[in-house]
Amino acid sequence: MRPFDYFEPATLPEAVSLLERFDGRASILAGGTDLLVEIKERIRLPDHVINIKKVPGLDYLSYDPVDGLKIGSLATLHEVETSPVVIEKYAGLYQAARELGSIQVRNRATVAGNICRASPSADTLPPLIADNATIHTFGPDGERSIPMEKFFTGPGKTVLLDGEILTRINVPSPPPNTGKVYLKLGRRAAMELATVGVAVTLTLDGNECRSVRIVLGAVAPTPMRATDAEDILIGKAISENAIEEASQAAKDQCRPISDVRGSADYRREMVRVLTGRALRMSIEAANEGNSPFDISTDQTVD
Amino acid sequence: MTTSIILETPSPTLGLIPENGLSVVHTSPPRVDGLEKVTGSALYAADYSFPGMLYGKILRSKHAHARIVHIDKSKALALEGVKAVITHADAPKELHAGSPAPRVGQMVADQYVLAEKARYFGDGIAAVAAVSEEILEEALHLIEVEYEPLPAVFDMVEAMKPDAPSIHGTERNLVGPPFIIERGDVEEGFAQAETIFEGHYETGRPVPCYMEPNACVCRWDRGGKLTIWSSTQCAFMVRGILSQVLGIPAHDVRVIVEHMGGGFGAKQDLYQHEFVCAILARETRRPVKMEYSRKESFLGGRSRHPIKITLKQGLGKDGLLTAREVRLVSNTGGYASHGLGITAVGCLDIASLYRCEKNLKIEGISVYTNNPIAGAYRGFGAVQAFFALETQIDEMAVASGVDPLDFRLKNIVGDGDLSPSEHHILGDGLAVCLRRGAEEMGWYERKKMGRNNSSPLKRGWGVGTEMHSSGAYPDIEEQSNAIIRMNEDGTVNLIIGMADLGTGTRTMAAQIAAEVLGISLGEIRVIDGDTDVTPFDIGAYASRTTYVGGGAVLKAANHLKKQLLELASERLECPLEDLSLIEGRVFAKNAPNEGIAVRDLVSGEGGRPPRTLIGQGNNEPTVAYSFGAHFAEVEVDTEIGQIKVLQVIAVHEIGRAINPVAVAGQIEGGIQQGIGHALTEDFIIDKKTGRPLNPSFVDYKMPLALDMPKIKTIILEEFPDPSGPFGAKGIGEDPIIPIGPAIGNAVYEATGVRMRELPITPEKFLKAFAET
Ligand SMILES: Cc1cc2nc3c(=O)[nH]c(=O)nc-3n(C[C@H](O)[C@H](O)[C@H](O)COP(=O)(O)OP(=O)(O)OC[C@H]3O[C@@H](n4cnc5c(N)ncnc54)[C@H](O)[C@@H]3O)c2cc1C
Description:
CATH class of the domain at 412-469 and 624-771 in chain B: Alpha Beta
Low-confidence stretches of chain A: 295-302
CATH architecture of the largest domain in chain A: 2-Layer Sandwich
Oligomer: heterodimer
Number of strands of chain B: 27
Structural class of chain B: alpha+beta
Shape of chain B: globular
CATH superfamily of the domain at 412-469 and 624-771 in chain B: Aldehyde oxidase/xanthine dehydrogenase, molybdopterin binding domain
Helix content of chain B: 25-40%
Radius of gyration of chain B: 27 Å
Helix content of chain A: 25-40%
Strand order of the largest sheet of chain A: 4-5-10-6-7
Bound molecules: flavin-adenine dinucleotide
Shape of chain A: globular
Structural class of chain A: alpha+beta
Number of strands of chain A: 14
CATH topology of the domain at 412-469 and 624-771 in chain B: Aldehyde Oxidoreductase, domain 4
Mean pLDDT of chain B: 95
Largest sheet of chain A: 5 strands, antiparallel
Radius of gyration of chain A: 19 Å
Strand content of chain A: 15-25%
Largest interface: A-B, 23 and 25 residues
Largest sheet of chain B: 7 strands, mixed
Number of domains of chain A: 3
Distance between the termini of chain B: 33 Å
């Protein structure tokens, strides 16, 4: 691995001033599960690495009914997947966290790191966007808040400015009769990067779809809303026909590429199948008012 | 995943086990080297370090086929800390075959240590030694290579066309002459058939992902002797080929293999780094360590041979096979490695398994292409051949309206029939395995879920069988040796030539010696993996270690026992035939309460000097066959094309399980790899550039713990082989073979879709599903 200088700032302003000083040649280190791999494989060769894990007070995960869920920038995927409130109210995020990498990775990896790496296949992005999350940052010019949907500009690219650090993710509290699902398509039960990811957050009003957000992963340079599909459903009665029409619309709207994980055609077809499945599951969950996943069994080898 | 083991030992012992039974063999004690391994004190090749040691690394070609016009090493040499840069100009101009040197004919010497021409993407073209790994990395980027790209060919059929680019200057890029088997008159056989079946089958390019990437450390001493610590299955082959290429006698090369993290056959080959490391160490006069990254283990490693098989069989009115015609084409990549041997084994295997001795015509061809090297991998040619045969047999059964199990039982080879090596088979092992598995899972009673249910999830069962030789005979004249030395305190040093690549060889060997000598495992210390110390052995492969090597241990221990009894006969003044050795004491028949401790025979008390007794065993058997049948249940998601293996019942007849838990470990591991072959594992090479697209664990997908099915392992000991120790036969390769066709056949039962190409990816499945 190529050598670099290493820093452990004690405060956010100190971290920001280091970033400013090194002007694009420094990388933030959180869990390191993306960054260290990239340095070892010479995808990224920073001269300076700034570890923010010594900054106190960034590892929280809290919830209140008014502000919703707050995920500090050092909260790990393991904290997220074991949080009762996430399991209860943020089922899509829960499922994404639970299927990310392996337990070893989840013990180190942060949600903020997953977001800042901005991989088109990143798992927590679709459910967080479906849940209408907001990202909060701190930088040379102070604080900003950005709707997560607007955060990504391309593979590995975000609207973060030089010197800016992601400090918190805010996810609104779900209204009653909301169902959430994240479905990840991969060949294995663990240690998989999504070939396709589909997140749905859907709220029912009787048999009518009051609101729905459908977000697709790994089928475009950034996670994308399947807005055509959403339009078909919003304000209408739920029907099998509408679900199929919406699934087809999601398929038509996505823009996948072909790679070793799957051809573009396969990905498109899987968007259709998985959008249909995710919609049906989220409708069921919204009706029952609970999470569609069996959370009593842990992911252990028996 | 849950697993369970059933061990079934019927009565026939053929005099292969002692009258009063077995006490150490046939049990599963903790491994003799288990403590070292779990505490992390076991040393692997890359754990060795010496003062002043340098690190080495190979520069790999960025073209699949290119002449190396010029290599400018000046910038790399100028970097501080770089001690040497070598290219083909600095390496010996000696062609070698890369594997078994002294004892085999099927190898082609087509490799240079560093070549003037790259023949696959990743072929090593230069190497660097430097004081740190960080400097090494920078230095590699400073070497400037001028390539002259040559037209390249990746498809094996294209490669045989007259206008294809020539890779080694051989006619039609063939590695050697076709391998042909002809018996009777195949045309006549087809004329007798009521129905003729013909199909094309193809297998992928899985890679043996051994846990320990290749590594070695080389050190020369002042007298010009080389010591190499290497992760190899074949220490004596490494010695032989290094001595040939470096031009030094065998006694000036010492190969040490302490512990290994797997090899699965691939580490039978000498890899480029083993030569390069020795040369760098000689040139810099310092020890050098070279360790492959995982990526290099893909790029410069050895995959399984992708094979295309055209199989045509005739079926008579009576439900018996009338003829079989096979054309098998194997893609060996840029160098021959084991290409010819694998083609030969594939042909011999597909000639057997189902009775068709009269009318048979088989042709096997091994072709060079500009792909990474394919080499030896567990199930050497058998995996591919039996996938084709076992799939078509299923098709024949279905088409003729016969239950696939009944069809197999009717045609499967049994006692007295011809084996792949053209020996007569001993025992009805295949039928026994099939029947036992069917009984365990309730084959005839099983409920077929029905393909027409409305759910996209469909379930079905399938079966696959195999037989496999213990040992590489007739390809190789088999031989193993063991030396066993009793010390003056009655403890034993057991010196074996075999390697323990993580399979438990040491424990197996110690169990056999302990059984014969009536001592405990704790009194035996196994010495292995050092060519200066141990007797010759060709290496750990071909399911041969227990069968051939264990047999040598048995002979050595018996030889030592004879000497002990002779000593005791003098001391007790009792004829040899009246003595017995039990739990470390020799007893005379007429005085069963007295006896003399083995230790007292050798200790040298009472003015006698201590005795060192040495037993020697040389074992040169021909071959024995193990048999197996796997029953697999799958669930297919017909909308997304994914196949999940829900459970496997694995039945293996292996004569005698020296260590049943170790046997079950081999079986479970084979199933894991076999599921990978069938469903997810494929090293994908770009068809235009020859660049590997997934040389890492991110996109090369082995099944992991959560993907594993429930496994029930049934070990049968119905047909012990007189040529194996206590009747034991091999198990190493067997379990990877039948699982693939079992899965394919289960997919058919579940969905009505016949998959003839591995791996069965979701996209391939969906395409076939849409067409049916
Ligand atoms: C074996 C393995 C399996 C994996 N499997 C998955 C998977 O299934 N799904 C998936 O989505 N990902 C997966 N990943 C990728 C990775 O684990 C996740 O993206 C993880 O969430 C990254 O978090 P981290 O804290 O480790 O980030 P780091 O590696 O520390 O950082 C990632 C990037 O974000 C930047 N960064 C981090 N924190 C901040 C911040 N607060 N402000 C600004 N920039 C910041 C860093 O500079 C870096 O560029 C896997 C990785 C590995 C090694």
